[in-house]
Amino acid sequence: MPFSPGIQARGIQLLLGGMMSRVHKDLRFTDIPKRTESLQVETGAGPVACTVYRPPSTTDTPAPAPVYVNFHGGGFVVARPEQDDHICRYIAATAGCVVINVDYAVAPQRPFPAPVTQAYDVTAWVAENGPANGWDGSRLAVGGHSAGASLTAAVCRTARDRGTFTPRLQIIDSAPLDQVGDPATKHSPIAKPLLTPHLMRVFTAAYVPNSADRAHPLVSPGLADDLAGLPPALVITAENDRLRDEGDAYAKALDAAGVSVTHRVFEGVDHYFTHTGPVPAGKEAIELMATTLRTALST
Questions:
Q1: N or C: where does the chain have the smaller number of CB atoms within 10 Å of the terminal CB?
Q2: What's the pTM value of the predicted model, to 2 decimals?
Q3: Out of 241, 245, 270, 275, which one is annotated catalytic?
Q4: Gap between the Cα atoms of 222 and 7, Å rounded
Q5: Which CATH homologous superfamily contains domain 5-298?
Q6: What is the mean pLDDT of the chain?
Q7: 246 to each of 95, 171, 207, 254, how far by Cα in Å?
Q8: Gyration radius of the chain's alpha carbons
Q9: Positive or negative CA dihedral for 112, 115, 116, 118?
C-alpha cells in the first residue's frame, strides 16, 4: 500500500529540512553584520514567530526605515526560515530596510488556508505596528521564494481585495502559481531538474488536500483573471525550473492587467539557485531584489 501524501510530506520534512538550510558557502554574505531579534505575531491561524533583521547602524537610511516581509520556500511543507538568512541579511544592509522573516505554518500539519492566513495577518500587523517597532509600515514590500512567492501573491491579492494596505513592491521568485496543472506537463530543458513531478504532487496534496480548492486564486494566483490593482512586481524565473513557464505567464498577465512588472529570466539555472548557486547568478538575483526594493521603498 502506498504511503499517504501526509506521511510522504512528513518524510520530506525529515529528509529535506536540514538540506534546505544549507546555503552555498559563497552566498552566505558572512561579511555583512547581522543584527536580529525575535518577535511573535498573533494571527487568525495561531501565533507566528518572526526574525527581525535591522539595517547596519552605518546605513544612511533615515529612521524609521522601511520594511520588507519575507516568506521562505519549502513546498509549503518544509519550515526552515533560516534558509533565507543570507537574503534577509543582504537586503537589510543593501536596501536599508528592516526585514521580517516569517516562520509560517506548513503542511501537512497545517494545510491551506492556514499558511495564507498567517502570511496575510503578519504582513497586516507589520503595516499597522511600525511606530512601536522602529520601522515605517507605510513603506512596506513583501516577497519570497518558491512557496513563499506564492504566499506573497496571496497576501497582495488579499490586501487589494480588503483595501487594507498597499505594498510598494512584491517579489515573486520561482513561484508555484498553478496547483491545478499536472506537474508532469511542466517541463524543463534539462534531464533532471531539481523539482520532480512526484515531489510536486506530494507538496500539492499535503498543502491543498481538497482538490476543489486548488483552483482558488489564493492557491493558484496564476489562474486568476482579475489582476488589476495589484502592487508593482519583480518576477524572477529560472530557465531550467519546471515552474518557469507559469512564472513567465504570470509576469505577462500582470503586465497586461496594467501592473508595473520587472521580469528577469536567469539563464542556465534551476529552482533554488539563489541558495545553491551557481554563485554568480545567485548573487545577481539577490542584488536585483535588493536594488529594486531600495528604489521602491525610498520613494
A1: N
A2: 0.94
A3: 241
A4: 28
A5: Alpha/Beta hydrolase fold, catalytic domain (3.40.50.1820)
A6: 93
A7: 28, 15, 19, 12
A8: 18
A9: positive
Q: Grid coordinates in use for 15? A: 529528509
State the Cα–Cα distance between residues 220 and 157, nearest whole angstrom: 12
Whether residue 85 has pLDDT greater than 80: yes
| 72 assigned to active site | no
**What's the average model confidence in pLDDT over 105-120?**
96
Residue 274 has pLDDT above 90, yes or no: yes
What is the helix (H) or strand (E) element at residue 38, kind and residue range? Answer: strand 36-41
11 three-class SS: helix
Catalytic-role residue among 84, 121, 136, 146: 146
18 burial class (0-12, 13-18, 19+ CB within 10 angstroms)?
A: exposed
Active site residue: 72, 86, 216, 271, which one?
271
Residue showing cell 494566483: 221
**What is the residue whose three cell numbers read 520530506?**
12
Is residue 91 classed as helix, strand or coil in its secondary structure?
helix
Backbone angles phi, psi at 178, to 5 degrees: -140, 100
Under the banding of pLDDT at 50, 70 and 90, the label for residue 105 is very high
* pLDDT(78) > 70: yes
Looking at the predicted structure, is the pLDDT value of residue 13 above 90?
Answer: no
SS3 99: strand
